[in-house]
Write a structure and sequence with these properties.
Elements: H1 2-29, H2 36-61, H3 68-75, H4 79-85, H5 89-112, H6 117-134, H7 136-144, H8 146-152, H9 158-169, H10 175-186, H11 199-214
Helix pairs in contact: 2-3, 2-5, 2-7, 3-4, 5-6, 5-9, 6-11, 7-8
């Protein structure tokens, strides 16, 4: 009896082990779950692609003439897929302006740590020109589309403008220094006039211009000749 019980017990254990192995085999053949981080990265990549596609279409056809459906068609997506990330064109436009704003915020953070005025001005000139060259399509959009120009106003807030002036020129910038900065900012909308230049030639031209603007004496008081 004990032998038969032992045999039966062995058979049960063996059967259980076989089922366990079979289960493990099935689990190993299943498609692995996509990690949350991978899904987040994929969503971020899609979001960036939507913004880039929208910018290109805004430049080619204008903001008003570009629909969410047109953006989706260009990307080979459904409108619902685009709608998942952006409910309106205005949200896409704001996101397109957010990225440049973040770039300039990072540049300002870097400049704020410099003690030499001349070093700050030169670093700003190089950083601003690099920014302009990277975002030359945005400049073209601003030049040709009134709605884009109006939307861009939000990106140049009073607080940000005051911070740039303070970082570059100190707490009491002169009228000439304030105007030099304004002229540097408005160069973004003038990029469309230089669309025939290569990136390298554009960089040289802009750097010469910005350096000239920032080299203004800036010490003339209001009302003085």
């Amino acid at each position: 009896m004990r032998v038969r019980w032992a045999s039966s017990g062995w058979s049960a254990a063996t059967a259980h082990e076989g089922k366990t192995r079979a289960g493990a085999s099935v689990l190993s053949e299943r498609e692995p779950d996509v990690p949350v981080t991978s899904r987040s990265a994929q969503a971020a990549a899609t979001r960036r692609q939507i913004i880039e596609t929208a910018q290109r279409l805004f430049t080619a056809h204008g903001y008003q003439s570009t629909s969410l459906q047109a953006i989706a068609n260009d990307m080979g997506l459904t409108k619902a897929a685009v709608y998942y990330h952006f409910r309106t064109k205005a949200q896409i436009l704001k996101a397109a302006l957010d990225a440049p704003v973040e770039e300039m915020t990072a540049l300002l953070d870097e400049l704020a740590g410099m003690t030499s005025r001349q070093e700050r001005l030169e670093a700003y000139a190089v950083g601003w020109v690099d920014f302009l060259v990277r975002n030359r399509e945005l400049g073209t959009m601003l030049l040709h589309d009134p709605e884009m120009r109006a939307a861009s106003i939000y990106a140049e807030s009073d607080g940000r403008r005051r911070r740039v002036l303070r970082v570059l020129f100190g707490n009491s910038p002169t009228p000439a220094e304030r105007m030099a900065y304004v002229m540097c900012v408005w160069m973004l909308e003038g990029l469309g006039e230089l669309s025939d230049l290569s990136d390298d030639d554009l960089r040289v031209t802009l750097l010469l211009t910005v350096r000239s603007l920032l080299a203004m004496p800036g010490d003339a008081k209001a009302g003085e000749a």
